[in-house]
Amino acid sequence: MNQTIETILNHRSVRDFEDKALTKDQIATLVDCAQAASTSSYLQAYSIVGVTDPDKKQALAKLAINSNTVVDSGHFFVFCADMYRHQMIGEMEEVDVTPSIESTEMFMVGSIDAALAAQNTALAAESMGLGICYIGGLRNDMGLVSEILNLPNHCVPLFGLAVGYPAVINDKKPRLPRVNVYHENSYESDPTHYKNQLEDYNQTTMDYYKERTNGNRQDKWTTQISKGLINPNRLYVGEFVKSRGLNN
Q1: Which residues contact 68 (CB under 8 A, 6 or more apart)?
Q2: What pLDDT digit, counting tens, does each position of 67-82 carry?
Q3: Locate the Nitroreductase domain: which residues (predicted)?
């Protein structure tokens, strides 16, 4: 096992950071690593906004309901699906690219490009001894995030990435069994077989929480996830994205 694989397998979210900002060189390196990620058809359909202004960090933290992680991070990155520069390309080349950049396919491309860039950033940060935490709570109010960051049309915020020096490192959460995730040649969807695998994983997660909380918590994974899925969340997102000129 090489060092890269060890870094990947040792991942855990860090939510408590030391009061220490990243250096300009560290930030530049992380952005360079983000840009080295694969990108569909060389489109590079994403942008990253680094947030250092204390007031803006506070505002983003409040709407994300994750104040300490955002505010105390050494640097906060916001990853966006971005077709604004491609609209500029159309104007420069005097061609109509609007139907293309406003398609569902291009929104998926931008979202995937942003996710790939973010994961490169996360792995690079962890390899540097830093901790990371993804902040999906920015989607609680994408309109407000867009206002705070002055995002143009055809650019929407997808998630944040808090990076910094870990103050507390939690235990690594157990993932689903490999057989529940990896299917070879054909999807294994037999209900009995599938549910048996999930019951095994329930026991794994119960043991994890029991040990982590000294017996105060013994959540089953299926119970935890089902509670989160009972009520649909952020139903405004589809219309908001369309209002920004994407996924039409």
Answers
A1: 15, 16, 61
A2: 789 999 999 999 999 9
A3: 8-165
139 exposed, middle or buried (CB, 10 Å; 0-12, 13-18, 19+)?
buried
Packing angle of the helix pair 54-64, 142-149 (nearest 10 deg)? 170
Q: How far is CA 53 from CA 137, 171, 216, in A?
A: 19, 31, 39
Instruction: Give the pairing of strands 75-82 and 155-164.
Output: antiparallel
Helix, strand and coil in the chain, % to nearest 5:
55, 15, 35
Q: Residue with structure tokens 């991942």? A: 11
CB 154 within 8 A of CB 197: no
CATH 3.40.109.10 residue ranges in the chain?
A: 3-170
> Nearest CA to 15 among 78, 50, 64, 54?
64
Got the DSSP string for 102-123?
TSHHHHHHHHHHHHHHHHHHHH
Architecture in CATH of 3-170 = 3-Layer(aba) Sandwich (3.40)
